[in-house]
Design brief:
Distance between the termini: 59 Å
Strand content: 25-35%
Largest sheet: 8 strands, antiparallel
Number of strands: 10
Number of helices: 3
Order of helices and strands: HEEHEEEEEEEHE
Structural class: alpha+beta
Amino acid sequence: MNLRNILIELANIIYRDIQAVQCAVDERKGIRMNIACNNGYFELYSKQDIEKLLRKSSLNPYDDIWISGEKDYPCLAILINGAYACVHYFLNEDGDMWQSIGDCEQDILFSTNGEEPAAMPGDCVISLEKAIQCAVSFFYTVQRPACIAWREL
């Protein structure tokens, strides 16, 4: 084994250790997100759990995922249809809310609360990857994610 391969293997070990420590830190911090989606209600405790949930949900025809911290507000609502998502941020129960600004070239169907799918305009549709970034950011801050552009509704 040459020095390059040893360094690559060492970097991989360090990366795995960092990921394991980050999961442990997340759990020790007591970070907990309440989730409501088509699969029911449950709690998630790490950013990896959030990422897994969204990726798994993208395999369903439609999903509607609500994420909140210890209180009901603020919360993040993510509509998913395959590789597409539309995200809403609700600051409070008074109706202060924002919607993702996207650049999809077509309208995309989404379903909320298991109802019939309805088309959302492409200018509010973002990629699943950007929605995952939003969810992870919200997981740590419980604030409107700064990783995408928003329009106030």
